[in-house]
Design goal:
Layout (H helix, E strand, L loop, with lengths): L7 H8 L3 H4 L16 H26 L4 E3 L2 E3 L3 E6 L2 E6 L4 H30 L7 H24 L9 E2 L1 H22 L5
Helix pairs in contact: 3-4, 3-6, 4-5, 5-6
């Protein structure tokens, strides 16, 4: 293989200084007409990274933003109950119900596990043997999806005033439910995904 090097090889090596680490995403041979890079795997890698970063952002927003439940000038989240009075925004701590503390813990765990799975994915990207699967990353991602699903279910069932017509669920609650299938799908993608041999 080394005897067949072409003039395109130094260009590829210069463009990809860590090319030896990324070879599982590219074809083994480089043609002289155009660098025949396995763009499919590169697109898959970029897509997975974008999906995972999107999930992290969604989880951070849904955990921290004050819009889980709305009622006119009032808004509720996992941490504060806020109300707009005479143009001012007044907040007080959320009540200390056990179910709300469980939702808080589950959403924080979901966010942390999603972040950890992204770090594990990046580590496994460089250390995993060729042909290996990203199972460790997948386990953390699936656990993240189960945490966010459990938190959203508890909030749906236990949320006070859900029968009141004035109350409606806010966009942070919707984002929490959106994070569940996204994290579950990416967890299954990590189970299926393997380094190219």
């Amino acid at each position: 293989m080394e005897g067949n090097t072409t003039k395109a090889d130094p260009i590829v090596k210069a463009a990809w200084p860590f090319s030896s680490r990324f070879l599982f995403f590219f074809e083994d041979s480089v043609s002289t007409t155009c660098c025949s890079v396995d763009t499919t795997m590169l697109v898959v890698l970029v897509g997975i990274v974008i999906l995972h970063l999107t999930e992290i952002i969604i989880l951070i927003i849904s955990t921290s933003v004050n819009a889980w439940r709305m009622a006119g000038a009032r808004s509720y989240d996992l941490w504060y109950d806020c109300q707009t009075i005479n143009g001012g925004y007044n907040c007080q701590g959320a009540h200390d119900a056990d179910w709300l503390q469980a939702v808080q813990a589950l959403m924080v765990l979901a966010t942390l596990f999603c972040m950890l799975s992204f770090i594990f994915f990046l580590c496994q990207l460089f250390t995993l043997a060729k042909g290996g699967r990203f199972l460790f990353t997948a386990v953390f991602q699936v656990l993240s999806s189960l945490f966010v699903m459990s938190g959203a279910i508890i909030y749906t069932v236990m949320s006070p005033d859900e029968q009141n017509a004035e109350h409606s669920y806010g966009y942070a609650f919707v984002l929490a439910w959106l994070a569940f299938p996204l994290t579950l799908i990416s967890g299954f993608i990590y189970i299926i995904l393997r380094k190219k041999e």
